[in-house]
């Protein structure tokens, strides 16, 4: 398979490379947690492991699908594509579940911010996947939208790579910059080789940036009070 992967060229190779870099981001982000002493994985509930397993399945599929196209295994690509649709549904569902579960378990100090950033990432991810399915016969749109969806899916890993507690809002901007890097590189590459940038990259970039514009919601008093209601009560 490795030999076949190296032999693919053109867009399949580009999108396989984008997906593979996201896998590296996940390894770096979550691998650093125990080293920093920030997370004790053995103490986490099973729902977190379920969500992580589903997320890993999505990343593996994101790498495999371009390889299947590059090796002309289109029927298998379509089959795994529909499996990917169910994985996406499961990823969003367990993502919502673990978000509120982490707040209820007292593992989040800012419930409102956690809800906005987590759910704010799941929404554009889901929208990109749905749109990619609808335009699946237009492979140019399909593969670019799914690449951007994968980038959004690994946002939690970026949140662990960037020291958010120390950097605050600047950390959020750095995180978004890291997520946009493969989109920017791909757009520049297209501009140089094809003379234009595919419109799907603009849609994908907007989806990646959209959680930034949702952050102010976390500071709305009514929303903050509602979010705090999911946190465990503080004993006097």
Helical residue percent?
A: over 70%
Counting structural domains, the number is 1
Describe the biggest sheet? none
Radius of gyration: 19 Å
Q: Which of globular, elongated, flat, extended, rod-shaped describes the shape? A: globular
**Share of β-strand residues:** under 5%
Short summary:
It is built from 11 helices and no strands. By secondary structure, it is mostly helical.
Main traits of this protein?
globular, 11 helices, mainly alpha
Structural notes for this entry:
By secondary structure, the chain is mostly helical. It has one domain. It contains eleven helices and no strands. Helix 7 crosses helix 9. The radius of gyration is 19 Å and the shape is globular. The model has no long low-confidence stretch (mean pLDDT 88).
Write the layout of secondary structure elements.
Layout: H1 2-7, H2 10-36, H3 46-70, H4 74-104, H5 111-134, H6 139-153, H7 155-161, H8 164-167, H9 169-194, H10 199-214, H11 221-228
Helix pairs in contact: 2-3, 2-6, 2-7, 3-4, 3-6, 4-5, 5-6, 5-10, 5-11, 6-10, 7-9, 9-10
